[in-house]
Automatic annotation (TrEMBL):
Top-level taxon in the UniProt lineage: Bacteria
Pfam families for the chain: Aminotran_3
UniProt keyword Transferase present: yes
Alphabetized InterPro entries for the sequence: Aminotrans_3, PyrdxlP-dep_Trfase, PyrdxlP-dep_Trfase_major, PyrdxlP-dep_Trfase_small
Entry keyword annotation includes Manganese: no
Alphabetical keyword list: Aminotransferase, Pyridoxal phosphate, Transferase
Name of this chain's protein: Aminotransferase class III-fold pyridoxal phosphate-dependent enzyme
Gene3D superfamilies for this protein: Aspartate Aminotransferase, domain 1, Type I PLP-dependent aspartate aminotransferase-like (Major domain)
Family, as annotated: Belongs to the class-III pyridoxal-phosphate-dependent aminotransferase family.
Length: 453
Protein backbone atom coordinates (compact mmCIF):
# COMPACT_ATOMS: atom_id res chain seq x y z
CA UNK A 1 0.00 0.00 0.00
CA UNK A 2 1.17 3.52 -0.71
CA UNK A 3 1.77 4.86 2.82
CA UNK A 4 1.13 8.54 1.97
CA UNK A 5 -2.46 9.70 1.96
CA UNK A 6 -3.54 12.06 -0.79
CA UNK A 7 -4.33 15.50 0.55
CA UNK A 8 -7.58 15.56 -1.48
CA UNK A 9 -8.73 12.47 0.42
CA UNK A 10 -7.90 14.14 3.75
CA UNK A 11 -9.66 17.35 2.68
CA UNK A 12 -12.78 15.44 1.55
CA UNK A 13 -12.98 13.52 4.82
CA UNK A 14 -12.40 16.71 6.79
CA UNK A 15 -15.25 18.44 4.94
CA UNK A 16 -17.59 15.54 5.70
CA UNK A 17 -16.58 15.65 9.38
CA UNK A 18 -17.17 19.40 9.57
CA UNK A 19 -20.67 18.95 8.15
CA UNK A 20 -21.33 16.11 10.56
CA UNK A 21 -20.24 18.26 13.52
CA UNK A 22 -22.50 21.15 12.49
CA UNK A 23 -25.49 18.86 11.97
CA UNK A 24 -25.08 17.14 15.33
CA UNK A 25 -24.07 20.12 17.52
CA UNK A 26 -26.76 22.81 17.01
CA UNK A 27 -26.43 24.11 20.59
CA UNK A 28 -22.66 24.47 20.42
CA UNK A 29 -23.03 26.22 17.08
CA UNK A 30 -25.68 28.59 18.52
CA UNK A 31 -23.57 29.35 21.58
CA UNK A 32 -20.53 30.07 19.43
CA UNK A 33 -22.64 32.49 17.42
CA UNK A 34 -24.17 34.23 20.46
CA UNK A 35 -20.88 34.46 22.36
CA UNK A 36 -19.35 36.63 19.67
CA UNK A 37 -21.32 39.56 21.13
CA UNK A 38 -19.38 39.37 24.38
CA UNK A 39 -16.07 37.64 23.74
CA UNK A 40 -13.32 38.40 21.32
CA UNK A 41 -13.27 35.42 18.94
CA UNK A 42 -16.42 34.19 20.73
CA UNK A 43 -14.56 32.50 23.61
CA UNK A 44 -13.27 33.50 27.06
CA UNK A 45 -9.70 32.59 26.06
CA UNK A 46 -8.71 33.06 22.44
CA UNK A 47 -6.93 29.72 21.99
CA UNK A 48 -10.19 27.85 22.75
CA UNK A 49 -10.85 28.63 19.07
CA UNK A 50 -7.78 26.63 18.04
CA UNK A 51 -9.67 23.30 18.19
CA UNK A 52 -10.31 21.92 14.70
CA UNK A 53 -14.12 21.96 15.13
CA UNK A 54 -16.12 24.31 12.87
CA UNK A 55 -17.66 25.85 16.03
CA UNK A 56 -16.31 25.67 19.57
CA UNK A 57 -17.62 22.70 21.53
CA UNK A 58 -19.60 24.07 24.48
CA UNK A 59 -19.12 21.99 27.65
CA UNK A 60 -22.13 21.33 29.83
CA UNK A 61 -20.31 19.28 32.45
CA UNK A 62 -17.33 17.04 33.02
CA UNK A 63 -17.04 14.21 35.52
CA UNK A 64 -14.45 11.45 35.67
CA UNK A 65 -13.35 11.25 32.04
CA UNK A 66 -16.84 11.86 30.67
CA UNK A 67 -17.34 15.25 29.16
CA UNK A 68 -20.90 16.17 28.20
CA UNK A 69 -21.43 18.92 25.63
CA UNK A 70 -24.31 21.39 25.29
CA UNK A 71 -25.98 19.04 22.81
CA UNK A 72 -25.95 16.17 25.28
CA UNK A 73 -23.24 14.12 23.54
CA UNK A 74 -20.87 12.31 25.86
CA UNK A 75 -17.16 12.03 25.15
CA UNK A 76 -14.43 9.83 26.56
CA UNK A 77 -11.97 12.60 27.36
CA UNK A 78 -8.33 11.76 26.62
CA UNK A 79 -7.39 15.45 26.37
CA UNK A 80 -8.23 16.14 30.01
CA UNK A 81 -7.72 19.87 29.73
CA UNK A 82 -4.23 19.29 28.31
CA UNK A 83 -3.17 17.75 31.66
CA UNK A 84 -5.03 20.05 34.11
CA UNK A 85 -7.59 17.28 34.64
CA UNK A 86 -5.09 14.41 34.40
CA UNK A 87 -6.61 12.80 37.50
CA UNK A 88 -10.12 13.08 36.03
CA UNK A 89 -12.68 15.87 36.11
CA UNK A 90 -13.83 16.92 39.58
CA UNK A 91 -12.42 13.96 41.55
CA UNK A 92 -14.65 13.44 44.60
CA UNK A 93 -12.02 14.14 47.33
CA UNK A 94 -11.07 17.36 45.59
CA UNK A 95 -14.66 18.53 45.04
CA UNK A 96 -15.37 17.82 48.70
CA UNK A 97 -12.27 19.69 49.97
CA UNK A 98 -13.05 22.69 47.77
CA UNK A 99 -16.68 22.85 48.92
CA UNK A 100 -15.65 22.59 52.57
CA UNK A 101 -12.98 25.28 52.33
CA UNK A 102 -15.25 27.56 50.28
CA UNK A 103 -17.37 28.06 53.38
CA UNK A 104 -14.34 28.97 55.52
CA UNK A 105 -12.55 31.69 53.61
CA UNK A 106 -11.04 31.83 50.18
CA UNK A 107 -8.04 34.11 50.49
CA UNK A 108 -6.44 36.04 53.38
CA UNK A 109 -2.88 36.77 52.16
CA UNK A 110 -1.79 34.68 55.15
CA UNK A 111 -0.94 30.97 55.33
CA UNK A 112 -3.80 28.67 56.29
CA UNK A 113 -3.26 26.14 59.07
CA UNK A 114 -2.90 23.51 56.34
CA UNK A 115 0.41 24.92 55.10
CA UNK A 116 2.77 22.67 57.13
CA UNK A 117 0.92 19.49 56.09
CA UNK A 118 0.90 20.58 52.44
CA UNK A 119 4.64 21.33 52.56
CA UNK A 120 5.28 17.87 53.98
CA UNK A 121 3.11 16.27 51.29
CA UNK A 122 4.95 18.16 48.54
CA UNK A 123 8.25 16.79 49.83
CA UNK A 124 6.79 13.29 50.11
CA UNK A 125 5.47 13.30 46.52
CA UNK A 126 8.17 15.27 44.67
CA UNK A 127 11.20 14.83 46.90
CA UNK A 128 12.40 18.42 47.27
CA UNK A 129 12.38 19.97 50.74
CA UNK A 130 11.46 23.66 50.20
CA UNK A 131 8.54 25.16 48.26
CA UNK A 132 6.87 28.32 47.03
CA UNK A 133 3.54 28.71 45.27
CA UNK A 134 2.05 30.42 42.26
CA UNK A 135 -1.28 30.35 40.47
CA UNK A 136 -0.10 28.93 37.16
CA UNK A 137 2.91 27.12 35.78
CA UNK A 138 3.64 30.21 33.67
CA UNK A 139 3.92 32.28 36.83
CA UNK A 140 5.98 29.64 38.63
CA UNK A 141 8.45 29.47 35.74
CA UNK A 142 8.67 33.25 35.55
CA UNK A 143 9.46 33.45 39.26
CA UNK A 144 12.02 30.65 39.08
CA UNK A 145 13.84 32.46 36.26
CA UNK A 146 13.93 35.62 38.34
CA UNK A 147 15.31 33.76 41.36
CA UNK A 148 17.88 32.01 39.17
CA UNK A 149 19.21 35.29 37.80
CA UNK A 150 19.10 36.89 41.25
CA UNK A 151 21.09 34.17 42.98
CA UNK A 152 23.65 33.51 40.28
CA UNK A 153 24.10 37.13 39.18
CA UNK A 154 24.13 35.81 35.60
CA UNK A 155 21.90 37.24 32.85
CA UNK A 156 21.47 34.36 30.38
CA UNK A 157 18.95 31.52 30.30
CA UNK A 158 19.12 28.29 28.36
CA UNK A 159 16.11 26.47 26.88
CA UNK A 160 15.56 23.81 24.23
CA UNK A 161 14.26 24.44 20.73
CA UNK A 162 10.52 23.71 20.63
CA UNK A 163 10.08 24.43 24.32
CA UNK A 164 6.93 25.78 25.87
CA UNK A 165 6.96 26.83 29.50
CA UNK A 166 3.83 28.96 29.39
CA UNK A 167 3.35 32.66 28.74
CA UNK A 168 6.91 33.37 29.84
CA UNK A 169 8.44 36.01 27.59
CA UNK A 170 12.04 34.95 28.21
CA UNK A 171 11.35 31.47 26.86
CA UNK A 172 9.34 32.46 23.77
CA UNK A 173 12.33 32.21 21.47
CA UNK A 174 13.25 29.85 18.62
CA UNK A 175 16.34 28.37 17.06
CA UNK A 176 17.14 29.54 13.55
CA UNK A 177 18.00 26.22 11.87
CA UNK A 178 20.08 27.96 9.19
CA UNK A 179 22.38 29.90 11.51
CA UNK A 180 21.96 28.21 14.91
CA UNK A 181 21.13 31.63 16.36
CA UNK A 182 18.36 32.38 18.85
CA UNK A 183 15.46 34.43 17.48
CA UNK A 184 12.41 35.98 19.14
CA UNK A 185 9.38 33.74 18.41
CA UNK A 186 7.64 35.63 15.59
CA UNK A 187 4.10 34.74 16.71
CA UNK A 188 4.45 36.51 20.09
CA UNK A 189 2.26 39.62 20.25
CA UNK A 190 3.19 42.99 21.67
CA UNK A 191 6.75 42.18 22.61
CA UNK A 192 9.16 45.08 22.39
CA UNK A 193 12.08 43.56 24.32
CA UNK A 194 14.53 41.34 22.53
CA UNK A 195 14.54 38.25 24.73
CA UNK A 196 16.82 36.50 22.29
CA UNK A 197 19.55 38.71 23.75
CA UNK A 198 19.20 37.01 27.15
CA UNK A 199 18.08 33.49 26.26
CA UNK A 200 19.95 30.84 24.28
CA UNK A 201 18.22 27.99 22.49
CA UNK A 202 19.83 24.67 21.64
CA UNK A 203 18.39 21.53 20.04
CA UNK A 204 17.04 18.88 22.40
CA UNK A 205 19.27 15.81 22.79
CA UNK A 206 22.34 17.75 21.57
CA UNK A 207 25.01 17.69 24.28
CA UNK A 208 27.67 19.41 22.17
CA UNK A 209 25.39 22.39 21.49
CA UNK A 210 24.50 22.55 25.17
CA UNK A 211 28.13 22.53 26.25
CA UNK A 212 28.98 25.29 23.76
CA UNK A 213 26.08 27.41 25.04
CA UNK A 214 27.31 27.07 28.64
CA UNK A 215 30.97 27.70 27.92
CA UNK A 216 30.92 31.48 28.46
CA UNK A 217 29.94 31.00 32.12
CA UNK A 218 27.09 33.52 31.91
CA UNK A 219 24.05 31.17 32.07
CA UNK A 220 21.94 31.34 35.24
CA UNK A 221 19.83 28.25 34.62
CA UNK A 222 18.72 25.61 32.19
CA UNK A 223 14.92 25.46 32.15
CA UNK A 224 13.72 22.25 30.53
CA UNK A 225 10.97 19.69 30.42
CA UNK A 226 12.34 16.16 31.02
CA UNK A 227 10.91 15.33 27.57
CA UNK A 228 9.63 17.88 25.09
CA UNK A 229 5.85 17.64 25.30
CA UNK A 230 4.71 20.79 23.59
CA UNK A 231 6.19 20.22 20.18
CA UNK A 232 5.23 16.64 19.80
CA UNK A 233 6.43 14.25 22.44
CA UNK A 234 10.22 14.03 22.14
CA UNK A 235 11.86 11.73 24.70
CA UNK A 236 15.42 12.19 25.95
CA UNK A 237 18.12 9.95 24.49
CA UNK A 238 19.68 7.39 26.83
CA UNK A 239 22.16 9.05 29.15
CA UNK A 240 21.14 12.55 28.07
CA UNK A 241 19.99 13.87 31.43
CA UNK A 242 22.89 12.64 33.59
CA UNK A 243 25.26 14.25 31.08
CA UNK A 244 23.23 17.50 31.10
CA UNK A 245 23.18 17.58 34.87
CA UNK A 246 26.95 17.07 35.01
CA UNK A 247 27.47 19.94 32.55
CA UNK A 248 25.18 22.21 34.57
CA UNK A 249 27.05 21.39 37.78
CA UNK A 250 30.43 21.94 36.13
CA UNK A 251 29.37 25.37 34.85
CA UNK A 252 27.51 26.50 37.99
CA UNK A 253 24.17 26.53 36.14
CA UNK A 254 20.94 25.80 37.99
CA UNK A 255 19.24 22.69 36.65
CA UNK A 256 15.49 23.43 36.55
CA UNK A 257 12.96 20.80 35.53
CA UNK A 258 9.47 21.88 34.45
CA UNK A 259 7.32 18.84 35.21
CA UNK A 260 3.99 20.45 34.38
CA UNK A 261 3.26 17.81 31.71
CA UNK A 262 5.80 15.09 32.55
CA UNK A 263 4.15 14.54 35.92
CA UNK A 264 2.31 11.99 33.79
CA UNK A 265 5.46 9.80 33.84
CA UNK A 266 5.23 8.32 37.31
CA UNK A 267 4.30 9.27 40.86
CA UNK A 268 6.35 12.40 41.67
CA UNK A 269 7.22 13.05 38.00
CA UNK A 270 9.98 12.11 35.59
CA UNK A 271 12.87 13.66 37.50
CA UNK A 272 12.07 11.68 40.61
CA UNK A 273 11.46 8.42 38.75
CA UNK A 274 14.80 8.78 36.95
CA UNK A 275 16.77 10.26 39.88
CA UNK A 276 17.69 13.39 37.90
CA UNK A 277 18.34 15.39 41.07
CA UNK A 278 17.23 18.85 39.85
CA UNK A 279 18.04 22.03 41.78
CA UNK A 280 14.54 23.36 41.15
CA UNK A 281 11.32 21.63 40.08
CA UNK A 282 8.13 23.25 38.74
CA UNK A 283 4.71 21.58 38.62
CA UNK A 284 1.44 23.20 37.57
CA UNK A 285 -1.87 22.23 35.97
CA UNK A 286 -2.69 18.85 37.59
CA UNK A 287 -0.75 19.44 40.79
CA UNK A 288 -3.91 20.54 42.61
CA UNK A 289 -6.22 18.46 40.41
CA UNK A 290 -6.82 21.31 37.96
CA UNK A 291 -7.62 24.16 40.34
CA UNK A 292 -5.38 27.12 39.39
CA UNK A 293 -2.19 26.34 41.27
CA UNK A 294 1.49 25.74 40.62
CA UNK A 295 4.38 24.98 42.94
CA UNK A 296 8.13 25.20 42.69
CA UNK A 297 10.42 23.22 44.91
CA UNK A 298 14.15 23.54 45.51
CA UNK A 299 17.04 22.17 47.52
CA UNK A 300 18.21 23.62 50.84
CA UNK A 301 21.33 24.93 49.09
CA UNK A 302 19.24 26.85 46.53
CA UNK A 303 16.88 28.02 49.28
CA UNK A 304 19.80 29.49 51.24
CA UNK A 305 20.96 31.40 48.16
CA UNK A 306 17.42 32.69 47.56
CA UNK A 307 17.17 33.89 51.16
CA UNK A 308 20.56 35.61 50.87
CA UNK A 309 19.53 37.35 47.62
CA UNK A 310 16.31 38.57 49.24
CA UNK A 311 18.16 39.82 52.33
CA UNK A 312 20.69 41.68 50.19
CA UNK A 313 18.05 43.42 48.05
CA UNK A 314 16.74 46.86 48.99
CA UNK A 315 13.25 47.13 50.53
CA UNK A 316 10.45 47.02 47.96
CA UNK A 317 8.86 44.85 45.30
CA UNK A 318 10.73 41.68 44.40
CA UNK A 319 8.76 41.05 41.21
CA UNK A 320 8.10 37.55 42.52
CA UNK A 321 4.64 36.39 43.66
CA UNK A 322 1.01 37.43 43.19
CA UNK A 323 -1.61 38.29 45.82
CA UNK A 324 -3.72 35.15 45.49
CA UNK A 325 -0.83 32.65 45.38
CA UNK A 326 -1.02 30.12 48.22
CA UNK A 327 -4.61 31.11 49.02
CA UNK A 328 -6.68 28.97 51.40
CA UNK A 329 -8.89 27.45 48.69
CA UNK A 330 -5.93 26.39 46.58
CA UNK A 331 -4.14 24.93 49.61
CA UNK A 332 -7.21 22.87 50.47
CA UNK A 333 -7.32 21.54 46.90
CA UNK A 334 -3.58 20.89 46.86
CA UNK A 335 -3.81 19.05 50.17
CA UNK A 336 -6.59 16.80 48.85
CA UNK A 337 -4.82 16.26 45.52
CA UNK A 338 -1.48 15.30 47.10
CA UNK A 339 -3.21 12.95 49.51
CA UNK A 340 -5.81 11.29 47.27
CA UNK A 341 -4.72 11.78 43.64
CA UNK A 342 -0.91 11.66 43.55
CA UNK A 343 -0.87 8.05 44.75
CA UNK A 344 0.90 4.85 43.74
CA UNK A 345 -2.36 2.95 42.98
CA UNK A 346 -3.55 5.75 40.69
CA UNK A 347 -0.30 5.72 38.73
CA UNK A 348 -0.30 1.92 38.54
CA UNK A 349 -3.72 2.07 36.91
CA UNK A 350 -2.81 4.94 34.56
CA UNK A 351 0.46 3.41 33.39
CA UNK A 352 -0.97 -0.07 32.83
CA UNK A 353 -3.90 1.23 30.79
CA UNK A 354 -1.70 3.64 28.84
CA UNK A 355 0.56 0.71 27.92
CA UNK A 356 -2.51 -1.19 26.73
CA UNK A 357 -3.59 1.78 24.62
CA UNK A 358 -0.09 2.09 23.17
CA UNK A 359 -0.09 -1.59 22.19
CA UNK A 360 -3.53 -1.26 20.61
CA UNK A 361 -2.50 1.74 18.52
CA UNK A 362 0.81 0.22 17.46
CA UNK A 363 -0.90 -3.00 16.44
CA UNK A 364 -3.50 -1.20 14.30
CA UNK A 365 -0.91 1.07 12.68
CA UNK A 366 1.19 -1.96 11.75
CA UNK A 367 -1.84 -3.79 10.36
CA UNK A 368 -2.76 -0.76 8.24
CA UNK A 369 0.90 -0.42 7.14
CA UNK A 370 1.09 3.25 8.03
CA UNK A 371 4.53 4.77 8.69
CA UNK A 372 3.43 6.26 11.99
CA UNK A 373 4.81 6.13 15.52
CA UNK A 374 3.35 6.04 19.01
CA UNK A 375 5.48 7.62 21.72
CA UNK A 376 4.57 7.17 25.37
CA UNK A 377 5.72 8.79 28.57
CA UNK A 378 3.93 7.04 31.41
CA UNK A 379 0.26 7.93 31.13
CA UNK A 380 0.80 10.26 28.17
CA UNK A 381 0.87 9.08 24.56
CA UNK A 382 1.16 10.66 21.19
CA UNK A 383 0.22 9.40 17.79
CA UNK A 384 2.93 10.82 15.54
CA UNK A 385 2.52 10.84 11.77
CA UNK A 386 6.19 10.10 11.17
CA UNK A 387 8.16 6.88 10.85
CA UNK A 388 10.39 7.20 13.93
CA UNK A 389 10.37 8.66 17.43
CA UNK A 390 11.40 12.31 17.06
CA UNK A 391 14.81 13.34 18.42
CA UNK A 392 14.41 17.12 18.46
CA UNK A 393 12.03 19.87 17.42
CA UNK A 394 13.33 20.13 13.86
CA UNK A 395 12.58 16.45 13.37
CA UNK A 396 8.96 17.19 14.32
CA UNK A 397 8.81 20.24 12.01
CA UNK A 398 10.19 18.18 9.14
CA UNK A 399 7.39 15.62 9.46
CA UNK A 400 4.47 17.90 10.38
CA UNK A 401 1.10 16.84 8.91
CA UNK A 402 -1.32 19.36 10.34
CA UNK A 403 -4.26 18.39 8.06
CA UNK A 404 -4.04 14.77 9.13
CA UNK A 405 -3.80 15.79 12.78
CA UNK A 406 -6.87 18.00 12.47
CA UNK A 407 -8.82 15.27 10.68
CA UNK A 408 -7.87 12.71 13.32
CA UNK A 409 -9.06 15.01 16.05
CA UNK A 410 -12.41 15.89 14.44
CA UNK A 411 -13.12 12.35 13.25
CA UNK A 412 -12.64 11.02 16.78
CA UNK A 413 -14.56 13.85 18.41
CA UNK A 414 -17.52 13.20 16.12
CA UNK A 415 -17.51 9.62 17.41
CA UNK A 416 -17.25 10.41 21.10
CA UNK A 417 -13.50 10.44 21.75
CA UNK A 418 -11.60 13.60 22.66
CA UNK A 419 -7.88 14.01 21.92
CA UNK A 420 -5.84 17.18 22.41
CA UNK A 421 -6.38 19.62 19.56
CA UNK A 422 -2.72 20.52 19.04
CA UNK A 423 -0.99 17.25 18.43
CA UNK A 424 -2.68 13.89 18.79
CA UNK A 425 -1.98 13.51 22.50
CA UNK A 426 -3.87 11.11 24.74
CA UNK A 427 -3.72 11.07 28.50
CA UNK A 428 -4.93 8.18 30.64
CA UNK A 429 -6.35 9.08 34.04
CA UNK A 430 -7.21 7.02 37.13
CA UNK A 431 -10.82 7.34 35.95
CA UNK A 432 -10.16 5.91 32.47
CA UNK A 433 -11.54 2.39 32.01
CA UNK A 434 -10.72 -0.43 29.61
CA UNK A 435 -13.99 0.30 27.80
CA UNK A 436 -12.79 3.86 27.09
CA UNK A 437 -9.55 2.54 25.62
CA UNK A 438 -11.51 0.03 23.54
CA UNK A 439 -13.77 2.85 22.30
CA UNK A 440 -10.78 4.95 21.25
CA UNK A 441 -9.18 2.02 19.44
CA UNK A 442 -12.42 1.17 17.62
CA UNK A 443 -12.76 4.75 16.34
CA UNK A 444 -9.09 4.82 15.37
CA UNK A 445 -9.65 1.66 13.36
CA UNK A 446 -12.58 3.30 11.57
CA UNK A 447 -10.34 6.24 10.71
CA UNK A 448 -7.68 3.91 9.30
CA UNK A 449 -10.35 2.18 7.21
CA UNK A 450 -11.63 5.50 5.87
CA UNK A 451 -8.13 6.63 5.01
CA UNK A 452 -7.44 3.37 3.19
CA UNK A 453 -10.52 3.64 1.02
C1 LIG B 1 5.69 22.33 30.34
C2 LIG B 1 4.76 23.47 30.60
N1 LIG B 1 5.10 24.40 31.48
C3 LIG B 1 4.29 25.44 31.75
C4 LIG B 1 3.08 25.59 31.09
C5 LIG B 1 2.20 26.74 31.40
O1 LIG B 1 1.06 26.34 32.08
P1 LIG B 1 -0.10 27.39 32.32
O2 LIG B 1 -0.65 27.71 30.96
O3 LIG B 1 -1.07 26.65 33.18
O4 LIG B 1 0.51 28.57 32.98
C6 LIG B 1 2.71 24.64 30.14
C7 LIG B 1 1.43 24.79 29.42
O5 LIG B 1 1.10 24.04 28.54
C8 LIG B 1 3.56 23.56 29.89
O6 LIG B 1 3.25 22.62 28.99
Amino acid sequence: MNPSIASQRIAALQQAERERFIATHPRSVAQAEAARAHYLFGVPLHWMRDWPTPATLAVHSAQGITLTCADGHRYADFCLGDTGAMFGHSPAPLAHAIAEQAAQGLTCMLPSTRSPAVGEALQRVFGLPLWQMALSASDANRFVLRWARAITGRPQLLVFDGCYHGAVDDTLVDLDPATGRTLPRPSVLGQVHNHAAFTRVVPFNDLAALEAALAAGDVACLLAEPALTNFGLVPPADGFWPAVRALCRRHGVLFVMDETHTVSTALGGYARAHALDPDVLVVGKAVAGGLPCAVYGFTHAVGARMAAAKAAAPEGHSGIGTTLAGNALTLAALDAALTHLHTAPNYRHMLALAAELEQGLVHRIARAQRPWTVTRLGARLELQFMPHTPRHAQDVRDHAQSELEALTHLFMLNRGVLLTPFHSMMLVSPETREGDVAALLAVFEQLLDELAR
